[in-house]
Amino acid sequence: xxxxxxxxxxxxxxxxxxxxxxxxxxxxxxxxxxxxxxxxxxxxxxxxxxxxxxxxxxxxxxxxxxxxxxxxxxxxxxxxxxxxxxxxxxxxxxxxxxxxxxxxxxxxxxxxxxxxxxxxxxxxxxxxxxxxxxxxxxxxxxxxxxxxxxxxxxxxxxxxxxxxxxxxxxxxxxxxxxxxxxxxxxxxxxxxxxxxxxxxxxxxxxxxxxxxxxxxxxxxxxxxxxxxxxxxxxxxxxxxxxxxxxxxxxxxxxxxxxxxxxxxxxxxxxxxxxxxxxxxxxxxxxxxxxxxxxxxxxxxxxxxxxxxxxxxxxxxxxxxxxxxxxxxxxxxxxxxxxxxxxxxxxxxxxxxxxxxxxxxxxxxxxxxxxxxxxxxxxxxxxxxxxx
Length: 387
Hints:
Elements: H1 3-12, E1 23-26, H2 28-41, E2 46-49, H3 52-56, H4 60-67, E3 77-80, H5 83-92, E4 96-99, E5 116-120, H6 123-132, E6 136-141, H7 153-163, E7 169-175, H8 187-205, E8 212-214, H9 218-221, E9 231-234, E10 261-266, E11 269-273, E12 291-296, E13 313-316, E14 319-322, E15 332-335, E16 346-350, H10 360-367, H11 371-376, E17 383-386
Parallel strand pairs: 1-17, 2-9, 3-4, 4-5, 5-6, 6-7, 7-8
Antiparallel strand pairs: 1-10, 10-16, 11-12, 12-15, 13-14
Helix pairs in contact: 4-5, 6-7
């Protein structure tokens, strides 16, 4: 069914009037700004946005809707991880879709051959696709040292020999993945590029002419400037986060990025405490003076780190509201001081302004983790809107 027809039918259906207490806002202008900045680092390459894992927690349909801003010439290809993600992207955009990881051979018939690129890195999948006897565009995945997936020197030639038995599979891309491009020591990244070029040459010698030649992720885009590459993939950077260590010589390449995610919650209760009263589970927080705690219907069920209690600050506008007491599964409490706040008022849980203390970066520090984990852990049930 045509995409416009699906959208038209959907527009005729009744919509829910439910208003959510917790909302993730995605700032459209920031995503567009980030993509254009990344493109400026490699102006002669095709930049492929990676929207796996619910678009790094930002919402798959929302991010794809924003990416529709770009023409198919400027942005022809979007990368996903799996078929469930593929379905959402296919319904949201008419761009081509690169499926990064393999699946059971029985599932490949589900992909639309006319707009799907399949990453293939095993002989088994290659053989299964050949047996299907259907035209497919594939990206040959090369193992350049990360050793998770991909063809190595000892089986690449066998794969290329298999491809000679069919005219249905077209190598439209050759790809690999970097293991530690986010680190300031680039020696292993250089070795991966060298190994890629050797394996790629074997592919070229077999008579293939791929359009998309790509190894760089967000971290590698600023570091790899070899003309052999015609494309790069961007994940974390497109969402506004610098993928590099602060002492990396290329760190400044990403300082212009703008985080695009804001999470807000709503005050559902106000509790007025006297000195000596307790807050939340465990009785480990006693008030020393009169305090007013606002209850918010959010926390570790929504995949925010449980360790944030007592170490994290939320905001009402520019007013800091420290968390108090233990974080609960669905609730937390913040001290509103003397602010005249009311039930129903909106509180900022995560903000895109890095000058504040309620950012993804701050949550990473508290939980001793990386932005990928914090972002992709945000519960998919939280309502997401584009602003």
